[in-house]
Amino acid sequence: MKIGIDKIGFYVPRYYLDMTSLAKERNQDVNKYKIGIGQHKMSVISPAEDIVTMALEAANSILTKEDKAAIDTILFATETAIDYSKAAGNYVHRMLGLQHNIRILELKQACYAATGSLQLALDYVRMQPDKKVLVLSSDVAWYGFNTPGEATQGAGAIAMLVSANPRLAQVHKGTFTTEELPDFYRPSYQEIPTVDGHLSIRCYNDMLKRVDPHTNFLYTCFHMPFANMAVKANKVYSHPISDEKIEVVKAFTQEVGNIYNGSLFLSLISVLSLAKENLENETIGMFSYGSGAIGEFFSLTIQEGYEKVFNKDAMLKHLDDRDEINFETYQSYMSFYKEKEVTHQFIESDFTPHAQNNFVLEQMIQGHRIYKKVSK
Ligand code: HMG
């Protein structure tokens, strides 16, 4: 029996900062960001959003009433949790109006938890093929002002519906490797991660070499903490894909930045949206990396007729249909994000949510979050 991703959706905040604006303020040559790191834009989370609203937007873009009734498990992968006890998925459950016979878990393993969740979901559905699992990933990659990581920041969410007889992609088992490493970590008292950027790139490539399947794929997608990580990874990979294909693999990341757990799947969406080839029955390689550290290589086979459940025009429109903000607005939104997640004080009426948003954070009362579905 085939098990895999029946549908996939994504959400990125409706505002972005162009790297030209950041380079100007940081006295850097813009080519360092656009050519060296490969980032053109950075998604910036707005005040009435958080990891829950982003996950809701992604899930809402793919789920029908029938899907909602069949979901009995939500796995929410994040490394930017909003609560040490309560799972962010509980809020998603309420706002999506899902049934009550459902298990909800939040999973953490740096940027790898979404891949781990997907693989666990596959095994679960294999044992109970009538069930569907909603795998969510939602993160805000925030390194702090004036840090080397600042140019690689981003925010976004991915939603995947895992089922038997998937219409999008059959997902195959992966090969994984783990070793405790000090490349990137954020202890609970820190707002931003401690990062040894150059060590982290070496750790990433080392993990890739360990799980490299030595197989040829039409495309291979990579976890992309910044777009040119795919270029670096492709150089140490046994079956590198062409420069032209790497451009397709990294196109969406270039426009968004790091979305941590969702980054690998954003790369898959990029390929599904932009590949010139017919992808039906083609197998795509997927390399997932999480600092700290773990690497997994798996593959997935795109199903015949997948375009019935994957609307590439809608994906491209979602990416294009954003508003640019200036540096001052970026500074105020990120300062606000930091303050909100530390003080847990928030009232939405102080801000006007973006007209495209369907879900907003309305209020926080002593840490309890109240969300609102925007009536359109
Ligand atoms: P940096 O050290 O400031 O930059 O930050 P650099 O000096 O290494 O320059 C970057 C590139 O730009 C270099 O190219 C330069 O030559 C080039 P490379 O040698 O790499 O090919 N460059 C220029 N190119 C054109 N014109 C110019 C110019 N100037 C320089 N004028 C770094 C870079 C990535 C280290 C930093 O942004 C950082 O620390 N980022 C965060 C950490 C990170 O992304 N690590 C990646 C692997 S770890 C990972 O993937 C896990 C993660 O997602 C977290 C998780 O798992 O939870 C991060």
What are the main properties of this structure?
376 residues, alpha+beta, Peroxisomal Thiolase, Chain A, domain 1, 2 domains, ten-stranded mixed beta sheet, three-stranded mixed beta sheet, 12 helices, 35% helix, globular, binds 3-hydroxy-3-methylglutaryl-coenzyme A
Provide structural commentary.
α1 (19-25) packs across α2 (30-37). This protein folds into 2 domains: 3-167 and 311-373, 3-Layer(aba) Sandwich (Peroxisomal Thiolase, Chain A, domain 1), CATH 3.40.47; 170-308, Peroxisomal Thiolase, Chain A, domain 1, CATH 3.40.47.10. The chain has helices spanning 19-25, 30-37, 51-60, 65-70, 88-96, 113-127, 197-211, 229-236, 243-256, 263-274, 312-320, 327-343, and strands at residues 3-11, 15-18, 41-44, 71-77, 103-107, 132-141, 154-164, 169-171, 175-178, 184-185, 194-195, 219-222, 283-290, 294-302, 323-324, 346-347, 359-365, 368-373. A hairpin with a 3-residue loop joins β13 (283-290) and β14. The N and C termini lie far apart (41 Å). Strands 1, 4, 5, 6, 7, 8, 9, 12, 13 and 14 form a 10-stranded mixed sheet that branches. The model has no long low-confidence stretch (mean pLDDT 97). The radius of gyration is 19 Å and the shape is globular. With 376 residues, it is of the alpha+beta class. It binds 3-hydroxy-3-methylglutaryl-coenzyme A. Residues 29, 31-32, 35-37, 79, 110-111, 148-149, 151-152, 184, 195, 197-198, 200-201, 204, 223, 225-226, 229, 258, 260, 289-291 line the site of 3-hydroxy-3-methylglutaryl-coenzyme A. 3-hydroxy-3-methylglutaryl-coenzyme A binds next to α2, α7 and β13.
